[in-house]
Amino acid sequence: MPDPATYRPAPGTIPEAPGVYRFSDPQGRVIYVGKAKSLRQRLNSYFADVAGLHPRTRQMVTTAGRVQWTVVRTEVEALQLEYNWIKEFDPRFNVRYRDDKTYPVLAVTLNEEYPRLHVYRGPRRKGVRYFGPYAHAWAIRETLDLLLRVFPARTCSAGVFRRHGQIGRPCLLGYIDKCSAPCVGRVTAEEHREIVEEFAEFLSGRTDRMIRELERRMQQASEDLEFERAARLRDDVGALKRAMERQAVVLGDGTDADVVAFAQDELEAAVQVFHVRGGRVRGQRGWVIDKTDETPDTAALVERFVTLFYGEQAALAEAADDASQPVPKEILVPELPADAGTLQQWLTGLRGSRVSLRVPQRGDKRALAETVERNAKEALAQHKLRRAGDLTARSAALQELQEALGLDQAPLRIECIDVSHVQGTNVVASLVVFEDGLAKKSDYRRFEVRDGAQGGDVASIAEVVRRRFRRYLAENRDGADASHGADDLDGTDGTDGSGPELVDAESLPKVRTGIDPETGRPRKFAYAPNLLVVDGGQPQVEAAADVLADLGIHDVAVCGLAKRLEEVWLPGDPDPVILSRTSEALYLLQRARDEAHRFAITYHRQRRSKSMVASELDGIPGLGPARRQALLRHFGSMKKIRAAEVDEIAGLPGFGRRTAEAVVAALHPEAAAPPDGGNPGARADEQHSAEHQAAAEHHTAGTSAEGAPGR
């Protein structure tokens, strides 16, 4: 592995001017291309302490054997040169946009004597006009079917065209007037080309002029008493309008714009683009990319995407000799990059006129941007589902984990723990289970952290691990292991929160195998995981490993996934395990960590909302736990309870008027009058009675569920 110090440029030799640099491996292949306002400042950052670099950057600089640079005059020139080098060398460490699908376009072969309209996928060719892209090929065919009655152009292949020309009979489309049949000479080459050019103008957005012209012809035919011709023109106008209706108007001012949105996680990002022409969505496309340290946030993703995408569009238009503009007048993005002015200047040069790069703030454009963002999130979710559902990928992930962590066998059961809180309050934790690489939601568990809440995440992790594995021992071992107190066990199963019953000696034969004697099914925690994952770094991992050692459990592997750099930590190892950013093993660990985080956050929000409600309703005379729950069930929220009148509350089962007045007075102290005309004795008697009743209700109701199975 090359040492970056062996090819580091001598101090002072790197210029401070703007420019573009490229790293090459020992064989001379370019592996990374970048640009910088100051080459010296940027390149020196690559030769800092290697241990402090991002894992992907560290891999790049240790793979490279040489660095070169080119000085340019302006940042715009640097942007252009960077794009050219990326397209020329295709460096492995640069971001690669891979289509989540191959988008079809409608091609018009103007380079042929008799131009053809057809669905096309593939590289652009010179002399061919392209419209789209469309989300589906059937959308193109439906549009063609509507428009061919108005523009009866050729759609057949070259072989079919020659064959019908030889036999002297048109195809079916020629007989039903959806083709002008140039193959048999019904129209000349010039007349057919005129039809095709009108079709291209219509798809280019000149729709209103075309419809007005047809309506004028229809009116003239009616005045000339050519009613059949007028009826056909009327149907043509209707066909054009139906074709336009399929492309909904999203921007009423007829704006030409591309709307870009991103959805991302720590490893990947999905990009969606809506192409709006004449105020209508003319096309849509999407990509999924692997993130790198060069694209840590949305602004950087915007810069990289706009550079690569519109540079490629301009190159395709030039190669195909396409007269259409490769860059729209306006590009709407979620965030502006740091050098937005330079990027906008470069885009203006590609288009030949001013291009606006901005973030929509309000109105229809903001609403459309939110729609595109929802599509991006859906695309990323679908991509992850396809990847998670791939049996081959799951098998590879388990095999990679076994090899990377040095396990005796593949971790067929993985459990992941995460802690959630807000500044140490309402501390909760979650435990999620993955079997064979898939989430097993029936085995999810959530915990209210008690003893470890004051000790931070490390103490909380230790408490959850201890409670989970004491339950495991209680369900599988005999006497001494099954006699842990209920305080160690509650909160890990799906009971009512009072904790499972203690296992006595007489019942041990029934539970020693981990089988529930009543249902005949395995108990939820009768099996230990092959791998326990904690959300965190070395301190959290060591805490979990110490707890397992104290409990005498030595057959469960432990690792931690640190979110900042996606490093995998093992107990007793001072250095983390670095998995490839494209590794299926890292993807599986990340998915388990994210699922645990989601489950913990959900429970934490529930606990927080309940505590907020309880704090407002606590201490109200006559309002015990049962009545508080009845209020919440009936009204649904504290907002509606505050808006309720005394009569509404008094009408609930189990409520009297005095209790209702007490609730209203507590929630609206500024407007409440003392009950019973301000008689202190009456209020004292009522409060004493209410406290007595609340105590009785508390005694019979029990406590709320602390642990419940995931649904």
From TrEMBL:
User: Does the record's keyword annotation contain Zinc-finger?
Assistant: no
| Biased amino acid composition, Basic and acidic residues | 507-521, 683-700
**Pfam families with a match to the protein in the record:** GIY-YIG, HHH_5, UVR, UvrC_RNaseH, UvrC_RNaseH_dom
Annotated region described as Disordered, given as residue ranges:
479-521, 670-711
Q: What GO MF terms are annotated? A: hydrolase activity
Q: Where in the cell is it found?
A: Cytoplasm
Q: Which residues form the UVR domain?
A: 208-243
Q: Does the keyword Transit peptide apply?
A: no
> Where do the GIY-YIG domain residues begin and end?
16-95
Q: Where is the UvrC family homology region profile domain?
A: 259-548
Task: Supply the alphabetized keyword list.
Answer: Coiled coil, Cytoplasm, DNA damage, DNA excision, DNA repair, Excision nuclease, Hydrolase, SOS response
Q: What is its main location?
A: cytoplasm
SMART domains linked? GIYc, HhH1
Domain of life (superkingdom): Bacteria
Any coiled-coil regions, as ranges: 204-231
Q: Assembly and partners?
A: Interacts with UvrB in an incision complex.
Q: Which family does it belong to?
A: Belongs to the UvrC family.
Q: Which NCBIfam families match?
A: PRK00558.1-5, uvrC
Instruction: Explain the purpose of this protein.
Output: The UvrABC repair system catalyzes the recognition and processing of DNA lesions. UvrC both incises the 5' and 3' sides of the lesion. The N-terminal half is responsible for the 3' incision and the C-terminal half is responsible for the 5' incision.
- Please report the name of this protein according to its UniProt entry: UvrABC system protein C
Gene source species: Pseudonocardia lutea
Q: Which gene encodes it?
A: uvrC
